[in-house]
Write the C-alpha cells for this entry.
Amino acid sequence: MNSFIDTYVVTYGLLAILVLMTLESALIPVPSELVMTLAGVLAASGKLSLIGAILVGILGNLIGSVILWAIGRTGGRSLVERFGRFIFVKPRDLDRAERWFQRHGEAAVIISRLLPVVRSVISLPAGVAEMPVGKFSLYTLIGSIPFVALLTLAGYWLGANYTVLVKVIQDLGYVLGALLVLLVVGFVWFRYRRRANLEALGE
C-alpha cells in the first residue's frame, strides 16, 4: 500500500494528494500521515509547492468529509432506526445523541480532526445529527488546517527520516482504533445488560 502511495504521489503530485486525502476523509483506509509527510519531502526537494501541497491536502479533507457527512445526513438515521435494535440502540437514544451533538458538535468536529482514525469517522455522526453543512465545513477546515500543515511541514523538515514520524503516527492510530473498538463493544454490552435487567424486572 505504502509503495503504491509513494509512486502515485511522486508521479501525479498535487492531483494525487487531492484524490488520496479525499478518499481518506471519506473513510477509505488511506494513510493521510504518509501522503502529507511525503508531500512535504517532495516540496523540500523542489518537486512540489509547499503551500500548494498544504492547500490541496486541506481541500481533499474538506471534500471527503462533506461526502461522508452527506451519507450520514441522507441515510444515517434511517439505518440506525432500522438496524439499531441489533446493537440495542433505539430511536430515543439517537435523539439524545443528536441533542448532545447540537450542544458539543463544534468542538467534537474540530478536536477530532487532530486525531488519527477518529478524524475520519466524525463526519458520519455529524451528518446523522443534521449539523448544517456550512457550520460543519467551517469547523472541518479549522481542525484540518493544523493537521495537514504540521504533517506537511514535518516531511519538509525531516526529509528522508519522515518514515519514522509516519510509523509513530500509525502506531498511535492503531491504539486509538483499538480503544474505539473497545468503547463500541463496551457500549453494546452495557445496552445488552441494561435491556436484560429491565426485562427481568418486568417479569
